[in-house]
Amino acid sequence: MTKLFSHGGSRPGAGRKKGTRKQEPTVVMRIPQSQQTVVKNFIQVYKSQTFQSEKITDTMSRPSQQLRIHAYPLFSSKVAAGFPSPADEYMEKRLDPNDFLIDNQDATFFVTIEGHSMIDAGLLPGDKVVVDRSKQPQKNHIVLAVVNGEFTIKRLSISRDGLAVLLPENHLGTYQPIVINEDMQFEIWGVVTGSFRRF
């Protein structure tokens, strides 16, 4: 009797198609069902960005999984420039930068600023911004959004027609507002809650 089906061994047409092999190993992982769409969208954007450039891997990072408390002296006197007196009476308390910058560790990641579209908001190229996905975006929030597969950081506004508008903040007028219409792929990834830089 001829077997119609067999188990085991090679099968014609099985396996990954030629030319689709990834350049790095892959792993199988379980994620919460509620995060499925988020992860799929991230992978889609990651793939498109990776094949165009290495921007995503270079510009996004997550807080350390083992944040340790490091509190440093915070002086009560505010200064326009210079350094406050180190006298004890000026020291108000100790400040942990992690507590100051991060509200929700599991929902927070960092993004490196590129370009000059938000310099009037104090965001300069090379700055790290703190993005919190747990916060509900509101009008006038600075947000990290994906527009047609491209990441951008802009201030969120609403047009008179009720459309979302992403506003640049650059007094030179080099950048134009992005009005979101139904034909555009658009998603807000998180609310920018802070930034930091090194000199």
Give a written overview of the molecule.
The chain has 3 helices and 10 strands. By secondary structure, the protein is α+β, with helices and mostly antiparallel strands. 11% of the residues are buried. The longest helix is centred in the N-terminal third of the chain and has 17 residues, at 36-52. The radius of gyration is 23 Å and the shape is globular. The model is unreliable at 1-6 and 51-57 (pLDDT under 50).
Summarize the structure.
This protein is an alpha+beta fold and 199 residues long. Helix content is 14%, strand content 27%. The strands form two sheets. It has an eight-stranded antiparallel β-sheet. The chain has a two-stranded antiparallel ribbon with strand order 2-3.
Structural class: alpha+beta
Outline the biggest β-sheet. 8 strands, antiparallel
> What are the secondary-structure elements, in order, as H or E?
HHEEEHEEEEEEE
**β-strand amount:** 25-35%
Q: What is the number of strand segments?
A: 10
Mean pLDDT across all amino acids: 78
Query: Counting H and I runs of at least 4 residues, what is the number of helices?
Result: 3
> Which residues sit in consecutive blocks of at least 5 with pLDDT less than 50?
1-6, 51-57
Shape: globular
